[in-house]
């Protein structure tokens, strides 16, 4: 869906990152997260900032980007991204009910802006409620017509390629 409207895969990843939740990021971390060159991420960040969709704030010597909530199309883009992901509210509920979730990532096709019908997530935390996870997988398919695959890790390996939807 989004890939037919937006031709740049990097731009899709940035829109998903910034408009799915109140995320922020800086150039090098985004390039690492998306496994893209800093140059390609910089070009798209500049395009989105020039269009007014992103705002950049200086934090020391680092420029931190986030969605411009004052943009006239902010809510429409946020709604489109939420519909694309189809799991916005559900993800929040899963994270809140699972226990001590430190981070949650969307990985795989959805993180690349492709609706394959299967959403892959990685939850990082200790003592997470695996019984609830089994229950919610069934309910998720009923609600959003997408299969959800969740991998649980106790600690962040530091090399996860995806979109951070919860945590820092």
From TrEMBL:
GO BP, one annotated term: regulation of DNA-templated transcription
InterPro entries for this protein: ArsR-like_HTH, WH-like_DNA-bd_sf, WH_DNA-bd_sf
Superkingdom field: Bacteria
Name by which UniProt lists this protein: ArsR family transcriptional regulator
């Amino acid at each position: 869906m989004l890939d037919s409207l937006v031709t740049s895969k990097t731009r899709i990843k940035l829109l998903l990152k910034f408009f799915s939740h109140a995320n922020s990021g800086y150039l090098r971390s985004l390039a690492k997260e998306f496994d893209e060159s800093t140059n390609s991420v910089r070009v798209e960040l500049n395009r989105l900032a020039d269009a007014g969709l992103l705002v950049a704030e200086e934090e020391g010597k680092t420029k931190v980007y986030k969605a411009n909530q004052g943009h006239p199309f902010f809510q429409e883009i946020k709604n489109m991204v939420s519909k694309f992901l189809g799991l916005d509210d559900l993800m929040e509920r899963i994270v809140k009910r699972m226990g001590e979730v430190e981070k949650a990532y969307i990985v795989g096709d959805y993180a690349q802006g492709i609706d394959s019908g299967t959403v892959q997530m990685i939850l990082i935390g200790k003592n997470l409620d695996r019984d609830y996870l089994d229950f919610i997988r069934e309910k998720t398919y009923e609600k959003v017509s997408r299969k959800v695959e969740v991998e649980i890790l106790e600690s962040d390996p530091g090399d996860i390629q995806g979109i951070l939807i919860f945590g820092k």
